[in-house]
Design goal:
There is one protein chain. By secondary structure, the chain is α/β, with parallel strands linked by helices. The chain has 12 helices and 8 strands. The chain has helices at 16-32, 45-51, 81-86, 97-102, 107-119, 132-136, 140-152, 157-160, 181-199, 201-206, 217-224, 241-248; strands spanning 5-9, 38-43, 61-64, 91-94, 123-128, 163-167, 209-212, 231-234. Strands 1-2-3-4-5-6-7-8 form an 8-stranded parallel barrel, surrounded by 6 helices. Helix 11 (217-224) links the parallel strand 7 (209-212) and strand 8. The longest helix has 19 residues, at 181-199. The chain starts with a strand and ends in a 5-residue tail after the last helix. The mean pLDDT is 97. The structure holds 2-phosphoglycolic acid. 2-phosphoglycolic acid binds next to strand 8.
């Protein structure tokens, strides 16, 4: 059975003391009231080494929001997958629409990042999703399919077992506009079919596909009730322990 995963994406928020306080609060709450899903917090690089030893690994895991497309060397300001892994982090988000749109990350660059992350033992939360004009033109399946094929479909099935997909319609990110549960289900089922075509039905059934984009405690339950929605990648609502916990609790009856 595939894992249900709720992951927080802090983006460029939280000073070190603020981040440490939030991680501590979440860790305490989840240790006291165990989640029914895997929980990951993905933080800015500077938080990783401090937060990693604070977390109860049984209830909360740690990830980065990005890593370099080069292994090591003279790349000023970059942080490698190996460096991320050495902090104790287990996950990395790659291909977030903000990285694609603001930092020019192409399918080719992401392919290199994915390879390096997997080679260094990180699990990858790989984001796909269409912009509003593409949705309005009915091109969402085409877009998502080419994002998957462009960066992930040269992996082996064994490598792909360490990939989590996050479907995030760009028009829903940080806008308060959520995809309906039916819209999410439709495209998640399509993504699973594409994975099945490439890697076989068993791999597809074992792949976690998260929804992301204005997911909140008030809409998480309806989204997670859909058969192909296996959790969420949470931005804004991951910055407050009560909201993030509310989404995690959507997996409880
Ligand atoms: P949001 O962001 O929950 O603030 O819409 C989600 C994301 O970008 O991962």
């Amino acid at each position: 059975m595939r894992k249900k995963i709720v992951a927080g994406n802090w983006k460029m928020n939280m000073t070190l003391p603020e981040g440490v306080a939030l991680a501590k609060e979440l860790n305490e709450q989840l240790t006291a009231d165990k989640p029914n899903c895997e929980v990951v917090i993905c933080t800015p690089f500077i938080h990783l080494a401090t937060i990693a030893p604070m977390l109860n690994d049984e209830v909360i895991k740690l990830g980065a929001e990005n890593c370099a497309d080069k292994a090591k060397g003279a790349y000023t300001g970059e942080v490698s997958a190996e460096m991320v892994k050495s902090t104790g982090a287990q996950y990395v988000i790659l291909g977030h629409s903000e990285r694609r749109a603001y930092y020019g990350e192409t399918a080719e660059i992401l392919k290199e990042k994915v390879k390096l992350a997997l080679a260094n033992g990180l699990k990858v939360i790989f984001c796909v999703g269409e912009v509003l004009e593409e949705r309005e033109a009915g091109k969402q399946n085409e877009v998502v399919s080419s994002q998957l094929a462009g960066s992930l479909f040269d992996l082996t099935a064994e490598e792909f077992a360490n990939i989590v997909i996050a479907y995030e319609p760009v028009w829903a990110i940080g806008t308060g506009k959520t995809a309906t549960a039916d819209q999410a289900q439709e495209i998640h089922a399509f993504i699973r079919k594409e994975i099945a075509k490439q890697f076989g039905e068993e791999v597809a059934q074992n792949t976690t596909i998260q929804y992301g984009g204005s997911c909140k405690p008030t809409n998480a339950k309806e989204l997670f009730a859909k058969p192909d929605v296996d959790g969420g990648l949470i931005g804004g609502a991951a910055l407050k322990a009560a909201d993030f916990k509310g989404i995690i609790d959507a997996w409880k009856e």
